[in-house]
Amino acid sequence: MGDEHDIISAWIGREILPHESAVRTWLSRRWRNVVDPNDVIQEAYCRIANLTSVDHILNPAAYFHRTAQMVATDIMRRSRIINFTSMTENEWSNVMDSEPLADRAMVADQELKRVNGLLSELPDICRQAIELRRIEGVSQREAAQRLGVSEDVIRNHLVRGVQKVLKLLVAQDMRMSGDEQETIEQKAEAVGTPRSL
After folding, report:
1. Closest to 154 (Cα-Cα) out of 174, 137, 168, 133
2. What is the predicted pLDDT for the residue at 149?
3. Rg (CA), the chain
């Protein structure tokens, strides 16, 4: 039980705590002088901390907003405050999922695959240096120790590797632009339109 409580506490610190300021501001605007935002936030933390698991929570920010709203509503009911306004659709937009749209996620996934493909063309030590420093985020010293080389070697491979990947990306983009331009020119010729369009 203690381990689960520690896991949930760490999750709250990592996933919920960063949204406290936004929730506090929202409570102050939404519930004005009806409830104390500090009391609501404290009770929301308690409710979340008493969960047996947080695995079902896909959007921590929205969950925190919704919990705070339920706490504020409960406080008002206990105080027998009846006249409270409902949330407008515009207010709900502030707590909606902040995940990227599907098309943006797809483009990002394609770009990631593209960069990974280019990284695989690099020499092993160069690729490993980039992966350790830029993807895993380890220090230059730790990367050097893991690969059994000096920090200067890591730095050189990192610079050269990133430059090579960027050049390859630009070259691919230029080829794609050239292909698109050729296709436009071919279509223009087929219909008798001048190429300068």
Report:
1. 133
2. 92
3. 27
Residue 21: burial class (beta carbons within 10 Å; 0-12, 13-18, 19+) = exposed
Half-sphere exposure of 147 (CA within 13 A, CB side): 26
* pLDDT score of 193: 43
Contact residues for 70 (Cβ-Cβ < 8 A; gap 6+): 47
Q: Give me 113's structure tokens.
A: 């695959």
Give the whole-angstrom CA distance, residue 135 versus residue 130. Answer: 7
Q: How many residues does the chain have?
A: 197
Cα–Cα distance, 64 to 45 (Å, whole number)? 8
Are residues 4 and 50 in contact, defined by beta-carbon separation less than 8 angstroms?
Answer: no
Mean pLDDT by 10 residues, the chain (197 residues): 76 88 86 82 88 86 89 80 53 60 78 85 89 84 91 90 85 71 52 43
Residue 186: the pLDDT is: 54
Cα–Cα dist 180/178, whole Å: 5
pTM over 0.85: no
How far from the centroid of its chain's Cα atoms is residue 132's Cα?
Answer: 20
Sequence-separated contacts (24+) of 110-113 with Cβ below 8 Å? none
d(CA 150, CA 11): 37
Q: Which residues contact 34 (CB under 8 A, 6 or more apart)?
A: 72, 76, 81, 84
What is the phi/psi pair of residue 17, to 5°? -50, -40
